[in-house]
Design a protein that fits this description.
The complex is a heterodimer of chains A (379) and B (258). By secondary structure, chain A is mainly α. Chain A folds into 2 domains: 260 residues, no CATH class; 103 residues, no CATH class. A 5-stranded mixed β-sheet of chain A has the order 2-1-3-4-5, with helices on both faces. Chain A is elongated. Chain B is α/β, with parallel strands linked by helices and 258 residues long. Chain B has a single domain, classed as P-loop containing nucleotide triphosphate hydrolases (Rossmann fold), CATH 3.40.50. In chain B, helix 7 links the parallel strand 7 and strand 8. Chain B is globular. The termini of chain B are far apart. The chains are: A mainly alpha (379), B alpha/beta (258). The interface between A and B is medium-sized, with 17 and 24 residues. Bound molecules: adenosine-5'-triphosphate (ATP) and magnesium ion. Adenosine-5'-triphosphate binds next to helix 1, strand 2 and helix 2 of chain B. The site of adenosine-5'-triphosphate has 15 residues of chain B, from helix 1, strand 2 and helix 2.
């Protein structure tokens, strides 16, 4: 039994003597904290604007004692008919429709309490906000005296297309970034640090091949391998969509998007893979071994995933088009906007261009590293 | 005599990291690995750089092969400078060391084609050369076997052949027989003699006296980065054998008794 302790002691002293190992283990937490704190600061400003927002509502037969409250918290909007109003909610132009039964005042508190109907659109942020808001207000009145949405009507007026768009735009960037990054980490260290470690890189470096050609050749082929896994992941997500949405939409989900949408997503995926692969390649060229490359890349990997997650915070509201220039984050936002059918063409183009520029810079850096004896032949 | 290689006052120092300082048991931050080296090699000869561990042999050969840059001096291979005509130099030399490896996954045929392309050898020339070299070294039968599955001797032959796909004038070989068994070592020495017979120039480094005696026409003895003797094998071994000559020079230079 004593030997367990001996082993543990040895492991601990080994672990804490290796500064890099300690850093690699602690870095992810630090990174997430740093990025999220930063995001929090950026978004605290945006959220407060939202609180002053008055949801646009169409109200049928509001009881007199509630009329005043409603008009102070909601922007009461007139529509020709209930049907028109519901259509406006579906289209996102109106936030909610509240329908009080005509006998509300008579039946309130009786054995057959009245049922208030609130129609909303789950794919619209403002609509969901309005729905929660009104429900909360009604909840402050005697709740056992009446019910809300107890009937079996379809209260969520979002279309399958909207729900799909909403879900996909939220999960796609993070999911894709995570999948793409793991595709990249599977190929880059092996191909670059591996060749360096095994001595086959040096065999190429004594030939007259231009270092930039070697760098480009590596990055292009690695991008293709990582893309294979990227595209298959994307198709996997799209095709599993009907299951994912639990029957809310059928097999037609994939058809909500046009061929153009798919090409744009493909372009984004390619440009993202280029950035990740070239960044991972630079780190791999610096590392002495595949193992070292792996441990140096893992914080980068987390950064990529965190940037993917960060797009969720924006929920479709990009304060300024320049944000699309931020590498990877911009791509995530562009992907998100395509998935929610609200693509910003300039933003899309900016995200692609910025990724290509960064890739080019990494390629030049990689070629420079291939030239550097300190990096390629360090003792 | 045509001068193929001309080395002029070649110098190289390394900045030592803490770890290296410990390893080298020194407090100095800079290690002078090659100190003002000057020599030439001529067409059709085997030139040996003989020296103990850490003498600067590998560093010298790596500079000649353009893998690392000298801090001072220059060297010319067939008139091309290793400093600013790197790619011309790379086309003119074949470089071999046990540190350069070939990928296990590929066959000799594939590797030959791959490196021919990197060296810019045209397809027909490459095909002809492959046939000649493969049959000369008995690689034909193994041309489609993955490198990783070959015997050590066959691997060595393939590496040798791959290093000369572009028919270089000068072959640079760091420690040619290091770590090889007698049979494989013979493959290498035969190969070098064969190349010399074809009129190629070879420069090799070693710390093995017998190898120098067997192969070299001229020898440079290198200690602490400096060339302390340079002569034909004949002249160096006129009075005593190479070993005694070397140790005498070593004691004189370093002041150490062995
Ligand atoms: N990249 C490097 N960084 C620091 N020091 C180095 C580096 N390369 C070589 N040296 C040092 O330079 C000196 C010469 O090394 P070199 O490898 O050229 O010697 P060598 O003659 O080839 O020896 P060996 O017989 O051990 O191969 C040694 O002291 C070595 O430690
Ligand atoms: Mg050496």
């Amino acid at each position: 039994m004593k030997n367990i302790f001996t082993i543990i002691k040895k492991e601990f002293s080994r672990f804490f003597k290796d500064k890099r190992m300690v850093i690699t283990v602690l870095l992810p937490g630090l990174l997430i904290f740093a990025v999220y704190s930063l995001m929090g600061t950026v978004f605290s400003g945006m959220e407060s604007v939202d609180e002053n927002y008055k949801p646009k509502a169409y109200i049928v037969a509001a009881p007199q004692n509630l009329e005043e409250t409603f008009s102070s918290i909601l922007e009461i909007t007139e529509k020709p008919s209930l049907e028109e109003a519901k259509k406006a909610v579906t289209e996102g132009e109106l936030d909610i429709v509240v329908v009080f039964p005509s006998d509300f005042s008579q039946t309130i508190g009786t054995a057959t309490p009245p049922d208030v109907k609130i129609f909303y659109n789950s794919a619209e942020r403002n609509s969901v906000y309005g729905y929660t808001f009104v429900t909360a207000v009604l909840g402050q009145i005697n709740t056992s005296a009446f019910t809300v949405n107890a009937a079996s009507d379809k209260f969520d007026l979002a279309t399958g297309r909207d729900i799909t768009g909403n879900l996909m735009s939220t999960i796609m960037p993070m999911l894709m970034f995570a999948l793409l990054a793991s595709g990249c980490i599977a190929v880059a260290p092996e191909s670059i640090a591996g060749e360096k470690e095994r001595g086959t890189m040096a065999t190429m470096l004594i030939t007259p091949i231009r270092r930039v050609e070697l760098a480009l050749g590596k990055i292009i082929s690695l991008t293709c391998f990582a893309l294979l896994s990227g595209i298959s992941s994307f198709l996997g997500v799209i095709l599993s969509l009907p299951k994912l949405m639990g029957g809310m939409v059928g097999a037609e989900a994939a058809a909500f998007y046009s061929v153009g949408d798919y090409f744009m997503v493909l372009a984004i995926i390619i440009s993202v893979v280029l950035v990740i692969i070239s960044a991972f390649s630079v780190v791999s060229a610096y590392a002495k071994s595949v193992k070292e490359a792996g441990s140096l890349i893992s914080p980068l990997m987390i950064l990529v995933i965190v940037l993917g997650m960060a797009t969720m915070f924006f929920a479709g509201n990009v304060p300024h088009v320049a944000i699309y220039i931020v590498p990877l984050l911009g791509s995530g936002l562009a992907m998100s906007s395509i998935m929610s059918f609200s693509v910003n063409p300039l933003g899309f183009a900016l995200s692609i261009i910025s990724n290509l520029v960064i890739t080019a810079a990494f390629v030049v850096l990689l070629a420079f590293m291939f030239k550097s004896e300190k990096i390629m032949f360090k003792k | 005599m045509t001068e193929i290689l001309k080395v002029e006052n070649l110098k190289k120092s390394f900045n030592l990291s803490r770890k290296q300082q410990k390893l080298e048991k020194t407090y100095q931050k800079v290690k002078v690995a090659v100190n003002d080296l000057t020599f030439s090699a001529y067409k059709g000869e085997i030139f040996g750089l003989l020296g103990p561990n850490g003498a600067g042999k590998t560093t010298t050969l790596r500079m000649l092969a353009t893998l690392i840059k000298p801090d001072g001096g220059n060297a010319f291979i067939d008139g091309k400078s290793i400093i600013n005509e790197e790619n011309e130099v790379r086309r003119k030399i074949g470089f071999l060391t046990s540190e350069l490896k070939l990928e296990d996954f590929f066959t000799p045929n594939y590797l030959f084609g791959f490196f021919s392309e990197l060296y810019g050898v045209d397809k027909t020339t490459a095909a002809q050369r492959r046939q000649v070299l493969f049959s000369k070294f008995g690689i034909d039968k193994f041309a489609e076997v993955k490198f990783g599955n070959l015997s050590t001797g066959m691997k060595q032959k393939v590496s040798l052949v791959i290093s000369i796909v572009h028919d270089p004038e000068l072959i640079i070989f760091d420690e040619p027989t290091n770590g090889l068994d007698v049979l494989t070592a013979k493959v290498v020495t035969d190969f070098l003699e064969e190349l010399r017979a074809e009129g190629k120039t070879i420069i090799l480094s070693t710390h093995i006296f017998s190898l120098v005696e067997k192969l070299c026409d001229r020898v440079g003895i290198i200690i602490n980065g400096q060339l302390i003797a340079l002569d034909t094998l004949e002249n160096l071994t006129k009075e005593k054998n190479l070993e005694d000559t070397f140790f005498e020079l070593y004691e004189k230079t370093t002041g150490d008794r062995i």
